[in-house]
Amino acid sequence: MLPQIQSRLGYTFRDPALLETALTHASFLPENPHVRENNQRLEFLGDAVLQLILTEELYRLFPDEREGALSRRRSMLTRGAFLAQLARELGLDAALRLGTSEESTGGRERAGALEDAFEALVGALFLDSDFPTARRIVLACYGSLESRLAVVDGDENPKGRLQELVQPLHGNHAIRYDVIRVEGEDHAREYEVAVYLLEREVGTGRGTSKKLAEESAARAALAKLRES
Q1: Is 15 a catalytic residue?
Q2: Which helix H or strand E contains 88, and what residues bound it?
């Protein structure tokens, strides 16, 4: 599996043992006493390298954003589930070296193990090359940060993303949500909500609670505003 991963990365390790260690879960060592190190130290290093890479790139991409917004974006791009998805895209899940018990209980699909493997991979890249090379490869794994953020943010925090989009132009109080319809019995209510920007309707959404309906409306508004 190592050649396939290196091919996906577009990088061949000078020291393949670093890549092997990055893929070695702690559970592998008790059954393989000849293996002396798992990926936890590399994960510690890779976490710091990844934070710096993303901090620098977000600082460059969003010159008008303040520290809080930049920190939130970085947090979104380093969440466990997100890093686990990047690990799967690279095929790290298939290449993990796991102990028998960890393997039998689904460790190969466990988000925590995949997150650690991705961060350990970043650490291994940094040690095997240099920061500019690691930066180039990591950013290639992410692809367009704007596109990644649009998907993650739009799905997980549409109201916050809408507010963030509108606030620089129209201030903090330009967005308003109104319930325009409630249907169904008490135990099976469905709400319809409209969202207004400066009293102009920019989206509607439905949900089984006002919160879910508002989030649905915010997603619709984000799609409409991005088109325009």
Answers
A1: no
A2: helix 80-90
